[in-house]
Amino acid sequence: MSERTLRGDFENRAPSEHPSRWNDLWVEGFTPWDRGLPSPALLELLTERQELLPVSGSTNTGKKLKALVPGCGKGYEVLLLSAFGFDAYGLDVSEKALEFAKEYEKEMGSQEIYNTREGVERGKVTWLCGDFFTSDAFKDVKDFETGFDFIYDYTFLCALPLSLRSKWSQRQNELLAPGGRLMCLEFPTNKPTNSGGPPWALPPKIYQALLPRPGVELKYDDEGVLVESELGPTSPNGLTALAHYQPKKTHKAGYDAEGKLMDFVSIWGHNDSA
């Protein structure tokens, strides 16, 4: 019997069927994307690379900065961001995933890694169930119209079919507040582009093509490789790359068979606030 894969679970399914399928997988307990702990790369950003964190106008109002984790699953990064003082919102299309997230928060939220640092007041944690691409999913977000000061994207873009990538870039642009920061933990960067998904191959150049061109459809050849010669100009309203680096550590899935670290981190901001 062949090994079960995510690709097999989504093969020949229309994008409209994907949300319910993700929930089914949580119900079935088939969650190979669940890492079991918060991202070492995010922790590194929060503790060692603070110069890349948001400088949003929210800091001038006395309000806590708002952070969003789309496709949050059990919410490891949501709890981590809360521990660093953000009002943290975990969004998932799966109701079952959020049931697990609430259980994890109750049972494991007091773990040492989620302790607040000296002088930091813990932020509020809010769980949101809905579609990233619709406003209704954010109806419980306080001051939603001001946007999010920090967005963390990992195993989210790679879970979306190629047909939704332009909508993803547009939505990230809309949700990110002026002065805000989008962190993309780029994965999987070394997967063959013709191998299908999810997870779909995401070499760094895909992020570099998408985010400066919000809402623009990219072209790929028959092997799934980005046709860079047909990229149009960047948009004045697009996001700007502020940093691109390899983290010191990442999840086990981010290393190749020889143990070489393959994940990258990119940090993005609006042109007028970069």
TrEMBL record:
Keywords: Methyltransferase, Phosphoprotein, S-adenosyl-L-methionine, Transferase
Domain of life where this protein originates: Eukaryota
Coiled-coil region: none
InterPro entries per the UniProt record, alphabetical: SAM-dependent_MTases_sf, TPMT
GO terms, molecular function: S-adenosylmethionine-dependent methyltransferase activity
UniProt keyword S-adenosyl-L-methionine present: yes
GO biological processes: methylation
Pfam families: TPMT
Descriptive protein name: Thiol methyltransferase
Organism of provenance: Coleophoma crateriformis
